[in-house]
Design brief:
Helices cover 38% and strands 18% of the residues. It is an alpha/beta fold and 397 residues long. It is globular. The chain starts with a strand and ends in a 6-residue tail after the last strand.
């Protein structure tokens, strides 16, 4: 975990950052050195070898890795029976967190494949070519983001009889709703309207992926989630209680101050940047917050301005916030806008006495380009959160 008052400041490890996961440099070398893993030795896939192939888990974000580990722990999955395939993004912050989480997965005994899936124009074809035999052979597939076009394309190649979807944050709520209604899979913050040229080209693959994510006589579908979701017919929902996180980490040292959790709603075009800055300032002042845990997608420019205006210490976590909070130190109150953490942190911090409080998004903060579904979705995220303290939206100019 690194702490900085602005993008030009030097990054120093924060207290409590050491843990079972190795340092970022060790993780980077270990991860990128393993372009192949024991699972690649399974070629060619035959019916006789199918039973010995591990479960494959496709992940693209740090929180997806954490939830795969939670799934494996909850189901008593043997370490050797699970291989995580990291479809690496290009964003440096996400890559850094993924490397740390990949090392943690290795520490737990799981196999890890690091795929430079977006490293150039030919990378997707190379990645799909390498993974196709495994996809056709594995009996169970775990995915973290059913909205990912990469994952949807890979789904068209699998013959897995068991599909598992683990949480990718609040997007899981929208995925379940769209699956139940038989709609095409579209992220909630996209404005909607008529599909663009890329959507039309990809439409057959997306439709095929949606069919494969629907249970049938030959395929089971499980959703492993900490979100409040209702299962469509045939889908099994298994609750994620963050037992692995609570068993493996903590309990944390709790400070007297309050911490504020950042969001990428500005970066996704949902919330106006100036309104968000003022809302953070007002919320921090009202509750005495001293630290701001940045979302991995928040821009350096925005965080620099936020630190200058609010005086908050900006912390760039190097692991998912559930692990950072569980390891501590953490404030006695955690403030958040509607996001995944208002559902996950109460579970990860159960029994510690830490209070999680959520502040509603004022409709006036939304941009003109925000999806018509944005306000309703964000209100639903807040309204369905359990064991959190509700705060009224703060006033901005």
């Amino acid at each position: 975990m690194t702490s900085t008052h602005g993008p030009a400041a030097s990054a120093a490890p924060a207290a409590g950052a050491a843990g079972p996961a190795a340092s970022a440099s060790k993780a980077a070398s270990a991860t990128e050195a393993s372009q192949t893993s024991p699972v690649t030795e399974a070629f060619p896939v035959t019916e006789a070898s199918r039973a010995t192939l591990p479960t494959l888990a496709f992940v693209e974000s740090p929180v997806q890795v954490l939830n795969v580990l939670e799934w494996a722990h909850a189901h008593g999955c043997r370490a050797a029976d699970l291989t995580l395939v990291v479809l690496s993004p290009t964003d440096p912050m996400t890559r850094g967190q993924l490397r740390r989480m990949a090392e943690l997965a290795r520490d737990e005994g799981h196999g890890v494949r690091w795929e430079e899936a977006r490293g150039g124009s030919t990378a997707p074809l190379r990645t799909i070519t390498r993974l196709a035999p495994l996809l056709r052979g594995t009996p169970r597939l775990v995915i973290g983001d059913p909205f990912s076009r990469y994952v949807q394309l890979l789904l068209t190649l699998t013959r897995a009889r068991d599909l598992v979807i683990v949480d990718d944050g609040t997007a899981t709520m929208e995925f379940i709703a769209q699956l139940a209604r038989g709609e095409r899979l579209v992220r909630w913050h996209r404005k909607g309207g008529r599909p663009g040229p890329r959507d039309l080209v990809f439409a057959p693959f997306a439709a095929s992926a949606r069919r494969r994510l629907t249970p049938s006589a030959h395929r089971t579908v499980e959703v492993f989630s900490s979100m409040p979701v209702e299962a469509p017919p045939g889908v099994t929902v298994v609750p994620n209680t963050f037992l692995f996180t609570r068993t493996r980490f903590g309990p944390p040292r709790i400070t007297k101050g309050a911490d504020l959790v950042g969001t990428s709603l500005v970066e996704t075009g949902v919330v106006d940047g100036a309104r968000y800055l003022e809302a953070v300032r007002a919320l921090a002042a009202a509750h005495g917050a001293t630290r701001y845990f940045a979302h991995r997608r928040e821009s350096a420019e925005k965080l620099h301005e936020l630190a200058s205006v609010t005086g908050l210490e900006i912390v760039r976590p190097d692991l998912p916030l559930e692990l950072i909070a569980r390891r501590g130190p953490i404030g006695h109150r955690i403030l958040s806008f509607p996001s995944t953490v208002v559902h996950t942190l109460p579970l990860a911090l159960a029994g510690t006495g830490v209070e999680v409080a959520v502040c509603d998004i004022d409709p006036a903060w939304l941009t003109e380009g925000a999806s018509p579904r944005a306000q309703g979705f964000l209100s639903g995220v807040t309204g369905t959160a359990r064991d959190v303290h509700r705060l009224q939206s703060v006033r901005t100019a």
